[in-house]
What does this fold into?
Amino acid sequence: MTNIQQGGCRCGFARYEIDLSGANTLNCHCIDCQKHLGAPFSVFTVVPASQFKWLKKPVGFIAFSDTANRIFCNKCGTYLKWEGVTSSNEAEINAMTLDDPSSFKVDEEIFVRTRISWLKPLEGVPQYEAGRTVEEGSKT
Ligand SMILES: [Zn+2]
Ligand SMILES: [Zn+2]
It folds into this structure.
């Protein structure tokens, strides 16, 4: 069963299609996300790489850590995709860039040790001090 959706940046220069079936969506409260987005946390949805494709691929990327590239639209600045330098078998998408960002549910919250003091945990959602696994724990 597929759940095909589309998304893109603010200006429409970058567009993608994603199959959200089996997606894992997380709120990330790490300091990198807070600074990079200028927001209290990020919302990322993770699917196998085969379930994601660019329809119009942006060219902007930055690498401010050794572990990942961050893909953004160089026309409007929207941050769209996180790409690990080593793991290419997953696509990690900024879920707020989906055309219908209310269409998913949040499965977990990570890096809650740096959650902003005035935010409360989402009720019924698993909370992780850092990343989900050892590998993800070192994700920045
Ligand atoms: Zn754009
Ligand atoms: Zn983060």
Observations:
- The pocket of zinc ion (ligand 2) is lined by residues 28, 30, 32-33, 42, 111 (CB under 6 Å).
- The beta strands are 4-8, 15-19, 24-28, 42-48, 52-56, 60-62, 68-72, 79-84, 90-94, 108-110.
- Residues 134-140 have pLDDT under 50 and may be disordered.
